[in-house]
Hints:
Residues 33-88 form the Complex 1 LYR protein domain. This protein is mainly α.
Amino acid sequence: MKPPAVPASLSRAARKISVKDGPNLEYFLTRARVLSLYRDIQRTLKGIKDPRDRQELQHWARSDFEQFRHETNPDRIKSLISQGKHQFHALQTNLTLSSTIAPPKNSKK
């Protein structure tokens, strides 16, 4: 007996995030994750007291997101989100230890 055929929608090529055939569910979920991470970073940076430091870190975060704005490989995007979360948690820790901001009230994992 033959194993069932894998639907084209589940093939690796079909998983590529692309809007040429219209955005799919994975596209919107990934976009929501990226925007959520960006907003969390911006909310944290608002708590920095020194305006120059705050502006510098906001510019740094924005430039990192802009650098990969047109990435379409879903595996690469997931890796970038993971790296971003890791850097964000490290930033939160460093800012808290340096007493630049108050500790986060409820951190998302």
